[in-house]
Amino acid sequence: MEKISGLIDAPFTPMHADGSLNLAPIEAYAALLVRNGLKGVFINGSSGEGYLLSEEERMQLAEEWMRVVPEGFKVIVHVGSTCAKSSRRLAEHAAGIGAWGIGAMATPFPQIGRVEELVKYCEEIASGAPALPFYYYHIPAFNHAYLSMLDFLKAVDGRIPNFAGIKYTFESLYEYNRCRRYKNGKFDMLHGQDETILPCLAMGGAQGGIGGTTNYNGRVLTGILDAWKDGDLERARELQNFAQDVIDVICRYRGNIVGGKRIMKLIGLDLGPNRTPFRNMTDEEEASMKAELEAIGFFERCNR
Amino acid sequence: MEKISGLIDAPFTPMHADGSLNLAPIEAYAALLVRNGLKGVFINGSSGEGYLLSEEERMQLAEEWMRVVPEGFKVIVHVGSTCAKSSRRLAEHAAGIGAWGIGAMATPFPQIGRVEELVKYCEEIASGAPALPFYYYHIPAFNHAYLSMLDFLKAVDGRIPNFAGIKYTFESLYEYNRCRRYKNGKFDMLHGQDETILPCLAMGGAQGGIGGTTNYNGRVLTGILDAWKDGDLERARELQNFAQDVIDVICRYRGNIVGGKRIMKLIGLDLGPNRTPFRNMTDEEEASMKAELEAIGFFERCNR
Amino acid sequence: MEKISGLIDAPFTPMHADGSLNLAPIEAYAALLVRNGLKGVFINGSSGEGYLLSEEERMQLAEEWMRVVPEGFKVIVHVGSTCAKSSRRLAEHAAGIGAWGIGAMATPFPQIGRVEELVKYCEEIASGAPALPFYYYHIPAFNHAYLSMLDFLKAVDGRIPNFAGIKYTFESLYEYNRCRRYKNGKFDMLHGQDETILPCLAMGGAQGGIGGTTNYNGRVLTGILDAWKDGDLERARELQNFAQDVIDVICRYRGNIVGGKRIMKLIGLDLGPNRTPFRNMTDEEEASMKAELEAIGFFERCNR
Amino acid sequence: MEKISGLIDAPFTPMHADGSLNLAPIEAYAALLVRNGLKGVFINGSSGEGYLLSEEERMQLAEEWMRVVPEGFKVIVHVGSTCAKSSRRLAEHAAGIGAWGIGAMATPFPQIGRVEELVKYCEEIASGAPALPFYYYHIPAFNHAYLSMLDFLKAVDGRIPNFAGIKYTFESLYEYNRCRRYKNGKFDMLHGQDETILPCLAMGGAQGGIGGTTNYNGRVLTGILDAWKDGDLERARELQNFAQDVIDVICRYRGNIVGGKRIMKLIGLDLGPNRTPFRNMTDEEEASMKAELEAIGFFERCNR
User: Fold this and answer.
1) Do D198 and A195 touch (CB under 8 A)?
2) Nearest by CB to B177, which of C200, C233, C244?
3) How would you classify residue B147: left for phi > 0, otherwise alpha for psi between -120 and 50, otherwise beta?
4) Touch of A by D (3+ CB pairs closer than 8 Å)
5) I need a labelling partner for A6 at 20 to 30 A (CA). Which of B90, C272, D198, D285 fits?
6) Partner residues linked to A165 by β-bridges
7) Does the interface predicted TM-score (ipTM) exceed 0.95?
8) What's the CA gap between C301 and A81, in Å, rounded?
9) Is the pTM of this model over 0.90?
10) How far apart are alpha carbons A9 and D302 in whole angstroms?
11) Pair D102, D132: CB distance under 8 Å
12) Number of H-type helices and E-type strands within chain A
């Protein structure tokens, strides 16, 4: 199976002021991402508030992204939800509109406590789009699915034919590497934490990744991969350190889903508010975040 | 606002062998519950796999329950989901079909970490059915919303006009009682753990409750309230102990959602399998559970 | 084996202003407890900062308590520590000075993750005082030993000859009752949460208990047992509610170990500061706590 | 302040078959470590079961290590315990016998919940040896002290004069790097997870580290640092992968404290059993672990 090379972006979902879906900015959004070195999008995931959208809205978004992206730019549709039947329908839809791949995180309800439950869940969904690569999105901080990913790979191997790999959004580079080395790299281990691309590269990983801060900091983050390829360690470190500085700021403003989405407005692409139960930033908070970003020179280096 | 008196049942959702919705058993189901002393149903909640159903299926279920229940038998519709807009539509629908009330647990995604987020979430949903009492369903073991319920009551008081109270499914009878005593009993504190009805009664609570094992053990559980009212402590203790014995068995068979649903088949009302990611019981497991229930004399005392 | 009837107090450890041990107040302390209806003391436990004392200090405290208590007033010595060999020596010492019993909570380091580890730990300690009843002190909020107490009882039964029962400081009255009913009440289940004595009594438990707020609120708390025995439910409820009101206040002042110890000064028995890493209250905090206690009429009803 | 360069070993504590202290193997132990490239020892820590030893035993161990190590081989004494006064005495003792430095993890009891508590705890201990560098040992998986280490550095900076840095045993290389970069590297950030030395080096860290598997795999682990220095990335990766393979095996045999200690016997330095509550390995388990280690060629590459 093809492995992803380079960085895929997890886009935010544009909304009108009243919280309804706003498809208008997506064309410009895609162009921005292409311009800044991203290789595709992983839509309707956590950054995209996928769980807070209806099934129909998720389909509309997928259709619009498919419409606007250039040839070769990958669209991976996150189809996970608490209703596996709905997720399977979303998988079928993704296949129908020609998406490159699909993905799903573990359902947060009922909380997944055993590998077998997770395999069953992924199997039911993946079978809805048997011709597309399926990625499991591991983000236990969000759904408490603290399972061994190595045990999971062993369990899906030979059982889910279109299983492609894992978007690994967890701190354990040890487990990441064990999964990466499974059967000499049988599965695609997408690195999923923008703050540790460089260390992961050193270990042999992070050839492909899915980022959340790539929305506004993609030039810097793809720069880490380029610098590493060029053997320029000092440049790679400087870029990784800067990426961490940006993340430090976001962490003080409710994280990427809320704070990061607001940064898009600051760089000229207003994507609107977040849905309930997220608490939207006030204008004062926005100004304060902007000042912190200016202090580290963010606006000279960010996506545009 | 009216307070609920007696026990409300949280029904399972009947399904065909392929996991699709099966509305046929609901009429008999309602009759069984009425016959055994239950005062209403709390549908599409955790026992009902509400989160694993589509919006449309949830509406169909609500309509069917409304169609079959007798006058005065309360139908409360759980409308919680990860998409507050969908939940609000479900609330509107519940009001439209004449349901007695609505309820919602905290969304498991994104995980609720602050009282303000929970209030905002409940507010958006409750406003969809302003004429119906809204109950917050507190079950932190399922969604990690470990928030102070007293702080929550203070925050909703005066802000959500149709806020009625809490279905309290947590172990802290101390916190339960603090909430119950808030402003001299302003809100309705429904007791939500069948294993501790008697101790809660002693403290002045549990005048109303919502049960999960009431589906098959309602006669015993409503018997606890009757015995307490009669001043017959020994009888109340014997019934509460027996209820715990039944729960002991269920805990060994994946809990109420899986094990309890299968008991319904054993007492003559086959409700079919559970949806993914639940692992359904094998025939061997069913036989083993049945033997354990026989050993404690369950089938002589259960609902019928 | 004799079962404990009535309430045992878990005393604070008196200290000089510099944090060194102060044995002087203990004689008056014991008299205060006797006067207010307590049946014994459980020393060097969590309220007593036992883990923050040296082995020698713990022995000195035990000797002083033995010296001052009247005939029939039980002294139970908590001997748990991270070093089982030290705990065993403390058990031998307790037996040597004529203590009534011993107890130990699970060591917090290494964290106990399996019943077999806990049994092994208790076995090594209990064998140091084979003629004394040994109580396991279950307080998982403090040491993360979230194990099934029923499984634990089954595992120690027949293996630790002097195992007497459990000081149960956890919210699950369901599990408490299952343990209480094990082999028709073979083991002594001491209730360990002052906020829920009444509900536990209703279920058939709480014949004996160990309290932390009994230090200053023992008259009220023993009053619950008396009222229940007299069949005066209203009085029992009023007392239990008041006990909860007091605990509400303490919870706002760093809990019983810090806030409760300071209350002793307010009722005339200054026991000094807490040891590191506890943060001691400022005078302003003390004044504020005092005002809150006055507002609920505490000083008219407390121990004296 | 001097920063540590290279790897320090966290030794196991030798015991007789009955669990009593055995000082005899320490001389040979030190020689083994020197031979295999280690730069010092961090004694009485988690690998050394320091919390399971008495104050006197900890002093005896420290004295013996000081007696046998060669000039320039650093002895750092872990002095943490639940009793800060005892820890302070151990710090004084360490200074008195000429140890190079001291360290302490957060007390597991009472559980540390705030930075201020941790600072107070470290301050009281560190002041016992004001001329020695003090290292905080961050290992939240063992003591639940999940605090921000950056906030902690800010809080100790200027308050604890002999604060040297952190032994960082946690997965977040992001937080590690933020701490490393604090005030241009003011504090010494010792890397504390043998499975991720290479990725940490890439990021600019891991110049110094403290290892647990260095006891038997030190040649391989110090080899990673050497290979990196030589610019031989492939060699560094091979060594890091092998180190992970060894750790994989240990994880199946109760981890390093139990499984790792038993490996010492397999490489010719029998250190005896673990103390209660650890469960010692059976002969069958030992044989099985040995076979797994042979299968990965461990015995050709390990320390000797």
Assistant:
1) no
2) C244
3) beta
4) yes
5) D198
6) A135, A188
7) yes
8) 55
9) yes
10) 43
11) yes
12) 14, 8
